[in-house]
Amino acid sequence: MDSSSTIFSLSGIRVALGETREIYLKVSESFLSSAIQIPVTVIRGVKPGPTAFVFAAIHGDEINGADIVRRLIFDVDHERLVGTLIAVPVVNIAGFLNQSRYLLYHRDLNRFFPGVKHGNNAERVAHKLFTEIVQKCDFGIDLHTAASGRLNLPHVRGDMGQPRVRKLARAFGATVLVDQAGVRGSLRREATDAGIPTILFEAGETGRFSQKISLVGLRGVLQVLAEMGMWHSDEEFVRPPFQVIVKGSEWLRAEKGGILDLAVKPGDLLYTGDLIGSILNPFGKTVTQIRSTCTGIVIGVTTAPLTIPGTGIIHIARLKKTLSLVERSLKGKKRKKK
Ligand SMILES: [Zn+2]
């Protein structure tokens, strides 16, 4: 890592201070013998400083991050940038082309970092990304959405036990910070373990752009860059109404098959015993009511109305010590006990 260097190059292309370059990074080849190339925009401030990556669509159908990266490239005055920003709107090209989460052979790219030079197809792509981009950086941000059929509250995930990760996560400005290092092979876990603190932003749903989420994401990324001395703005940081670090999160699942009538949405505060929704049979009669088995904040919901035993209904982050803080800040729009 040579973050303060005046020289930066990618794919053999040098980018000088004050320059912005669009570069293709070859990571694989297609069945048509053509190159699979990842579009990378390298933005260098006039002054040297830290180097950071912002990745989107590592899961090829989680495209909202591509819109956040586009705004980062085009809606932002590059003269205010210090250091080097490596912006990648579409990391998983094969998945993006197929509107799928996966690379070819159903491999999840976000399970193969830091990669293997002569490994399988996913390991090779991961290795290229890790050596050509991630290892040149001081920190990184990985933009995701909920998986297919689900909708997420904007929140940040990362290993909050690590002060440098926590600093990035807090600056992003989300209300909920989920303290999860990530599974082995995930980018945030492997980059952080390699000394490059990395956070993951989760928001929205697959296959869609939400302007609201794009703006929240853009602001979050800029606040992280500002915190790290890479971005100068006269604007005050936007402080969320509350900010809690949650350790445990779990999916509450259907016990019955049928048609779901969901009564909650992302961001709702639920207490043990609260009604989450009902499962109906095809005649429209209630088969069962689903109630929360814990107290916490809803960070994800299913968007699919059909259930069988085991279908994930809501993803809830448990609140314990921080419950009163959340209750206080939600006061005024406090929900009635159902
Ligand atoms: Zn994802």
Kindly describe this structure.
The chain has 338 residues and is α+β, with helices and mostly antiparallel strands. It folds into 2 domains: 8-227, Aminopeptidase, CATH 3.40.630; 248-329, OB fold (Dihydrolipoamide Acetyltransferase, E2P) (Beta Barrel), CATH 2.40.50. It is built from 7 helices and 19 strands. Strand 15 (275-280) and strand 16 (286-291) form a beta hairpin. The mean pLDDT is 94. The structure holds zinc ion. Residues 59, 62, 144 line the site of zinc ion.
Helix and strand arrangement:
Layout: E1 8-10, E2 13-15, E3 20-29, E4 35-44, E5 47-56, H1 64-74, E6 82-88, H2 93-98, H3 121-132, E7 139-144, E8 150-158, H4 163-172, E9 176-179, H5 187-193, E10 198-204, H6 211-227, E11 244-246, E12 249-253, E13 258-262, E14 269-270, E15 275-280, E16 286-291, E17 296-302, E18 306-307, E19 312-318, H7 323-329
Parallel strand pairs: 5-6, 5-7, 7-10, 8-9, 9-11
Antiparallel strand pairs: 1-2, 3-4, 4-6, 8-10, 8-17, 12-19, 13-15, 13-18, 14-17, 15-16, 17-19
Helix pairs in contact: 1-6, 4-6
The chain binds zinc ion.
Compute the CA-based radius of gyration. Answer: 21 Å
Mean pLDDT across the residues is 94
Structural class: alpha+beta
- As for the number of domains, it is 2
H/E order of the elements? Answer: EEEEEHEHHEEHEHEHEEEEEEEEEH
Overall 3D shape = globular
Spell out the CATH superfamily of the largest domain: Zn peptidases
Q: Looking at CATH, which topology of the largest domain would you report?
A: Aminopeptidase
Amino- and carboxy-terminal Cα gap: 54 Å
User: Quick one: biggest sheet?
Assistant: 13 strands, mixed
Percent strand:
25-35%
CATH A-level architecture of the largest domain: 3-Layer(aba) Sandwich
Q: What oligomeric state best describes the polypeptide chains here?
A: single chain
Ions, cofactors and other bound molecules:
zinc ion
Number of strands: 19
